[in-house]
Design brief:
9 helices, mainly alpha, 4 strands, two-stranded antiparallel ribbon
Amino acid sequence: MALKDSVKKRTHKERSQPSSRRKYGLLEKKKDYLLRAKDFHKKEAAIKILRRKAEEKNPDEFYFAMEKSRTKDGVHVAPTAQANAYTADEIRLMKTQDVGYLTLKSQAEKGKIEKLKENLHLLGKSASNTHTVFVDSEQDVASFDPSQHFDTPAELLERRFNRPRTSQLAEPIVVSSTKGESLEKATSRATKSSKRAYEELEHRYARERALARTRDHLQGQRKGMAPGRKVKVSKRGQSVKQFRWKAERKR
């Protein structure tokens, strides 16, 4: 072991910021200054290049990329989608997962539609058929009173559901509801509730059809990515593309 290695060396401490300049933060060292200077000169060179490009720019020049470029608050926005970022097999796998998700959502919508239909029983829907009543003579036809025949007030004849008899309306339990509402208010509230339920059912039908249409479109795209020579056989305007693959000899 050498003598110089056995002698204790003095520990050199890093110079700190003087107490009078402590409000300016840490004392900048040379390595910090080099990083700051390099960053400053890099930005300065970039600004110089951009200034020269702006001075030498031809105002009449045109590139086809200008048609697809977009700006947001005066700043150009670069497209995030990268071309050919995934292989054909990876894209086909992702489309398969999308089809599975849409199928799951479509089945859930069908379940909700069936539940709504069971609760509604198509109440209040305008009937395509009519109720025919047979009488014995022409005089009975002239004197026929539907309200008396069905034992129901004339205001409730058009209803296909919850059509009580006149004798039932005479009971106090039927005439007034638990909240003290009159018959007209209770009837109006029930009609509005039925209308909202049918509007929800209609929206559910529209959503289920949209999910099925999107699922079929993705499924057609996934099948169209299968390898081999193919010919498009779907007609113009058809939502789902159809292909026919040419027969190839398999080894």
